[in-house]
Design brief:
The protein contains eight helices and six strands. With 211 residues, the chain is of the alpha/beta class. It has a six-stranded parallel beta sheet, with helices on both faces. Strand 1 (3-10), helix 1 (21-29) and strand 2 (34-36) form a beta-alpha-beta unit. Helix 2 crosses helix 3 (74-86). The N and C termini lie far apart (33 Å).
């Protein structure tokens, strides 16, 4: 008999699974079954990260009736690529936190630095001409999107408008297949490490809405 439901946590660029510890601990305390992955998001391409995700969760996915995803930043793009590549049919809900669905201006600036994109390969997958895989046509699961509005970093203030989290613009975080959307007053690096975001994630996983 299959287990009922699990939530998989996916970290973002230049991070590891420890970056999702706050959400992991909070969800476990609330009774959710959770599995956190560790992906090569510093030097690996989006395709390599997708393959690593596939390898790490292949047994987990088959053991549960429903699989949810909670992803931060680039982790959302990796999640989309994975679901699309395997045509996963037991997805329940996805929460994408500060995911640059339309790319990042800062990634374009970084890509212009000699050798930077060749060393940090994910940067090439985060450019403003990014074409993410939308699930609008055949989506059987719900998607929630959370954006941050605190542009409090020096780099963010120099290159991004006020409507951003210091790394990604709010307009870029929005996706055309989202069912729920909220903006929270946090920056890119701490938006997934506070109680307000945790509460929103728990509500959506439990009820399909942020409220």
């Amino acid at each position: 008999m299959l287990n009922k439901e699990i939530t998989i946590l996916i970290h973002g660029f230049n991070k590891n699974q420890s970056d999702m510890f706050y959400l992991e601990a909070g969800l476990k305390a609330a009774g959710f079954a959770v599995f956190s992955v560790n992906l090569p998001t510093t030097f690996g391409s989006l395709a390599q990260c997708r393959n690593a995700l596939s390898e790490q969760i292949k047994e987990v996915v088959d053991e549960y009736e429903v699989v949810n995803y909670v992803a931060h930043s680039m982790g959302g793009l990796i999640t989309r690529a994975y679901i699309d590549s395997v045509q996963q049919n037991n997805v329940g809900k996805c929460v994408f936190i500060a995911t640059p669905h339309k790319g990042s201006r800062l990634a374009a600036i970084a890509a212009g630095i000699p050798l930077y994109a060749r060393i940090f390969r994910p940067v090439s997958d985060l450019l403003p001409n990014l074409q993410y895989r939308s699930f609008t046509a055949n989506k059987s699961f719900k998607i929630a999107v959370i954006a941050g509005s605190s542009n409090d970093s020096i780099i963010g203030r120099l290159f991004l408008p006020d409507g951003s989290d210091g790394r990604v613009e709010i307009a870029s975080v929005k996706s055309n297949d989202m069912d729920e959307f909220i903006v929270l007053p946090y920056n890119h690096h701490n938006i997934h490490k506070n109680s307000e975001t945790l509460a929103a994630v728990k509500n959506f996983l439990a009820r399909g809405t942020f409220n």
